[in-house]
Design brief:
The chain is an all-alpha fold and 298 residues long. It contains 17 helices and two strands. The chain folds into two domains: 4-22 and 109-294, Hypothetical protein af1432, CATH 1.10.3210.10; 24-105, no CATH class. 66% of the residues lie in helices and 1% in strands. Helix 5 (78-85) packs across helix 6 (87-104), helix 8 (140-152) crosses helix 14 (229-244) and helix 12 runs antiparallel to helix 13 (210-218). The protein binds fe (ii) ion (2 copies). Residues 153-154, 195-196, 219-220 line the site of one fe (ii) ion.
Length: 298
């Protein structure tokens, strides 16, 4: 007999097999993901690979020189950027720039929706990094993976809107009718899977680290929380980012369940909330370059 997970997987595969023009990463991105996890690859080699794509290089440098990092002098090449920010930070900037590029070209996505979407995704990315810094067992590499996972956690929603428009309309109609149902339950009732499955599928196609694919898959799942630290980091980051979000002065209510057990999973407690939210506000204020690039404005 098939398990529920197998049935979901099968249905997801049937639908996504029909999606032929799923956004693809730049060629250089694929080359980097092949060598990036090899400990023998030097910063010099990675810098050389990125430099082969001038558009990607320009974006990575723009993010490196943004006020977010506060580097006192202008960085003019990727090798220099790797020396100053570290290879892990550059990896997450390459992922960010590639994802922004792939999705900002999509005309099916409404500008206002896209702006709110990226504001939320960036908040979750920053918050995931802050949570990682608060965890005693964490390290720099984990913090950067958390950033990428946070940035991509809801990417399945963009695929849903742009590639499954009929299903998206059904979901929207049901959302208006069923105000008490969670977002993921509504998606599952229409599709038999939700945006987390869809996003994880795309992350897999992009050959992103398995840890990131798993975290995207499980960021709303109660069962997965004790097993996947990154999923737990993103689950908490999503909750805290929603707490902090004010779009045009009106609060967006969180529509998915929050599992308190995540605090224990991460070895943290609720008392750090205010301090983390304060850090998010100050980092977010420096995120303008990220946001503009995500919207295809730079
Ligand atoms: Fe989500
Ligand atoms: Fe989210």
């Amino acid at each position: 007999m098939q398990t529920t997970a197998e049935t979901t997987e099968k249905k997801l595969k049937i639908i996504v097999d029909k999606i032929h023009n799923l956004p693809t990463p730049p060629i250089v991105f694929t080359q980097i993901t092949k060598v990036i996890n090899n400990p023998d690859t030097s910063a010099y080699e990675i810098g050389g690979i990125i430099a082969e794509d001038p558009a990607l290089t320009a974006k990575v440098l723009k993010l490196t020189n943004s006020s977010f990092y506060g580097i006192p002098r202008t960085i003019t090449n990727v090798k220099q950027a790797i020396v100053i920010l570290g290879l892990d930070a550059i990896k997450s900037l390459v992922i960010s720039a590639s994802v922004f590029d792939a999705f900002s070209k999509n005309k099916a996505l409404d500008t206002e929706y896209l702006e709110n979407f990226w504001r939320h995704s960036l908040s979750v990315a920053f918050m995931a990094k802050i949570i990682s810094r608060f965890r005693k067992t964490s390290n720099l590499q984990e913090a950067e993976i958390a950033f990428s996972g946070g940035l991509l956690h809801d990417i399945g929603k963009l695929i849903l809107i742009s590639h499954l428009p009929d299903e998206y309309l059904k979901i929207k109609a049901l959302q208006e009718k069923e105000s008490s149902m969670s977002e993921i339950d509504i998606e599952s009732s229409v599709l038999q899977f939700n945006h987390a499955h869809l996003g994880s599928y795309m992350a897999g196609k992009w050959n992103l680290p398995e840890e990131i694919c798993d975290a995207i898959m499980n960021h709303h799942s109660k069962k997965a929380l004790p097993n996947g630290i990154l999923a737990a980091v993103i689950h908490l980051a999503d909750y805290l980012a929603h707490k902090n979000e004010l779009y045009d002065g009106k609060k967006i209510e969180r529509k998915n369940p929050f599992y308190e057990s995540v605090w224990t999973t991460l070895g943290m407690d609720i008392s750090s909330t205010d301090q983390m939210l304060e850090m998010l506000r100050s980092e977010y204020a420096k995120a303008e370059t990220f946001l503009k690039m995500a919207q295809g404005m730079s």
